Every structure is written in structure tokens, then in C-alpha cells.
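REVIEWER CHECKLIST
Item 1: Sequence provided? yes
Item 2: Single chain? yes
Item 3: Sequence as submitted:
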Amino acid sequence: MRVADFDYALPEELVAQQPSAERTQSRLLHLDGATGELEDLIFAHLPALVGERDVLVLNDTRVVKARLAGRKSSGGRIEIFVERTLGEDQALALIRASHPPHAGSALEVGDGVRIEVLAREGELYRLRFHDTRVADVLERYGAVPLPPYITHAPGGRDAERYQTVYAERPGAVAAPTAGLHFDRAMLAQLEGRGLRIARVTLHVGVGTFQPVRAERVEEHRMHRERFEVPQAAVDAIDAARLAGGRVLAAGTTALRALESAALGGHLEATAGETDLFVHPGFRFRVVDRLLTNFHLPKSSLLMLVAAFAGLDHIRRAYAHAIDKRYRFFSYGDAMLIERAA
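Item 4: Structure as written out by the authors:
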């Protein structure tokens, strides 16, 4: 398939710049991937759409303040976007600068924190933070890594709302945005109905912001991301299956974690890295239903939902969402998709 098959025109004003006033008051477009039927709802209606035998799978990653403003030893300004930490004092990062730094370069952020460029690794740089922990520098001097299509500078509201209420394990540089629609009251309501809630972890990497540059879908390669599917999640999913329930993944990251852990033919507890690229033709082994936001044109995430629901159904759903003035991308509205047969 061609990447151009996943393009669409989006009016600029439909790119959500701020979250909804209340998390659960976002709109929800329900798409049946078997029939293509569409239903306009709000996210607060979700508890009525799940069964007590189902299992909801959440990605409990926590977004770190991954953007650092700094300078070279020459005084030139730079931006460091930490993709992942490598032990206490090293990290892999993107660096934006007028001239790319070389191995041995000295950088500085904050109040005199020294950083050494150790090596270049593809698009990323390996950095060493001197006399301090990477996590401490990010917490003190870092900014919330809002996506590039959100035009305002990150503020205090973003620190809260660009994070799920169940975030626990620091390591992501982008939020698992389908989870932004849940509040604690809804999660308690779902559990009160008997719904199982399982947790997995996938630390969303810098690749989530990278465009698909290949002309053909099959030529695209994903960045590797750390993930874990614990035994408790496997047990909850097995119990739901035995009871006749369905698996609802809250977000493409939860789906990719589960399907990565099932590539051997069946779901098993797994921890490691994944570069799983889900596109039309992929065989799903675990997830029956998917909660997700609306995704960028020609993105790998749009290809994933097209694989899940069928490309024609997704094209129709997105055209409907644009016509009905849904809000798009990270701070936008949500979809609930039933998997195509």
C-alpha cells in the first residue's frame, strides 16, 4: 500500500489546542469495524458500552519533562529532547541546533548542568550528564513535551492534563492520549460494574512524532520502545476470555504492547523492546476493541486503526468526524472501534 492512501485534509481549526474542560466530556465516535456503522456519543457514555466480563487494558507509563533548553560552549542555543534514559547519568536524545554537535561537544542546561555528547546513534545522540542524575535534571529544568502541532508553550495545566490519572512508571516522552479521557470517578465506576482493569507499560518514544517518510507502507521502520506486559495482565485477559468477555485496549500503545507480547502465537508475560508496526494485513491476536484519538494524516497510528477497522471504514469515520467538527489529535476527542471481522 502507498502512504498516500492514508492522507486526508483537516481544517486547521479542528486541531485541539487545549483539553476539554472535563476529561470525560470529550466527544466519542463509536465505529463498528464489522459494519461501518457510526454513532456520535460523549466519553462519559463509555461505561454503558462495556460488559462486566470485559477487561480494560491501560498503559501506565508516565510522561517525563523531556524538553530541555540549553546552549553550546560557543553560546549557541539548542533544544534537547530526551528520548530515553540509559542509567542514571546517560540518555539518548534528539538535539535541535543550528549546527549539529559532534562527539566530545560540551553542552549546558539550567543553572550550569554540564552535558557531554558521547556519540551519535542514528538520529539520536548519546549524552552524559555530569555530576547529576538525568531524572533530576528533567524534573528541575525540563518542560512537558507537547506535540509540535500544539502551538502554546507548556504550562501548569499541561503538566496535569497531558498525563493520565493512572500514570505510574516514568519513561514516556508523549502521552498515551486515549487514556487522557478517563478520570478517577469513571475508573471506579467501571470497576464497580465488575469490569477487570489490567495494566501494561509502553514508554512512548520520540518516534511517535516522526513522519512516515517511505512511499510504500511496508518500507517504514518504527523506532524501538520499551514495554512490559506483566503476568497479572495476562491472567486478567485469560480470565475475561474464559468468562466470554472482550479485551478493550485504551490506546494504540496498549494495543501494541499486547500484540507484541503475542507475536509468538499466544499472549505471554513479556518485557523488552518492540518496533511492531501495525498496518493493514496485520493479524490481531489479543485486542477486540480499541479506544483511540484521531491521528495525523499519513501517520503510522492512522495505519494501525485502518488495520483494526478497515481502511474504508476509517476513511468514512474521519470524514464524518470532520463534518461533525470533532476535535483532533492529542487534546482532541476519542473513538471507540470494534475490530473488523
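Item 5: Key structural point noted by reviewer: The chain has a mean pLDDT of 95.
Item 6: Recommendation: ____
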